[in-house]
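Researcher: I'm preparing a figure for a lab meeting and need a structural model of a single chain. I don't have an experimental structure, so a prediction will have to do for now. The sequence is pasted below. Please return the structure as tokens so I can convert it later.
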Amino acid sequence: MSASVSTSKKRALTDFFSPASQKKARISPQAHESQALSTDLPTSSHTTYPFPIPHLPSHISETLSESPSEEGRAINDQPDLNLLYFQPFVPRRIEKELFQFLRGQLFFYRVQYKIKRGGIETQINTPRYTTVFGIDESSKFTADGSIVDASTSKPVASDKYPTCRPRPMPQCLHELRKITEVFTESTYNFCLVNYYANGSDSISYHSDDERFLGPEPAIASFSFGAKRDFLMKHKAIPPKENDPVVDGINNMKPLKLPLASGDMVLMRGRTQANWLHSIPKRKGGESDKGRINITFRKAMVKGGTENYYQYNVGKGEVWKWNEAKREMRPWQTKEEV
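Model: Understood. Here is the structure written out token by token.
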């Protein structure tokens, strides 16, 4: 079963993002690269950013307005599963450059935190690089980046978010969010970004079923860079005697989606309440070339804001991609050349 994108909706979005003239100059890859790295690009800045983040180069923005590149395919043939799978969502001719731009221009963290299991405190080292932008529905950002009450537009109390410093999405992520909202018919106030440096970086089985996301949340998940397997399995159900339905669910093989660069999976409906998903460790193939995952979601209350910043920023140092070293390195005001 396939879902379709209406022609009128796509045309309206293209008109919104595109300049008056529909003619597009043919730009060489070298020109693209020089523009992406240009220091003349306008930037997004905020007091919480360790450094300004450049806006998307114009040719990427223009091509991004043509998204989705393919119609979404509905996957709903298993119990409680409701997915829309775009292969790809972002046009192939810019997905590689967009990956390189985001990896090179965003800042990341390698978060560490402690949890208690059976009364024993355990140190957790997040096996990937993370960063996050956004704020929950009770608040909003003004044009200058200040935080105000979503209902009254008055400044929020200075201690409303005592454990974190919320920050707005930079233009490069905000543009992708606007397009995503149109074609998923949902709105989002958070953007989580994961960078998997190699096949050893991973995320274990989990579900995004936190109460602060509300019932039946929609989560749009993008992949850029290396192809990685996205595994899903139904949550275990307590067995019942002579119940073939329950037995069938508990014995189902995991669903595997080989997410390629530019692909997007929309998880919605009862999916988070009933399914787990993961990016397992992998060796060989593309896994060591690096992968960025971007998820858009909506947090309803301030507990969601505190949670996302705790587990995606924490108190660790800032990391930034170093092109010369071809790796993430701790960022300093004066970077290594």
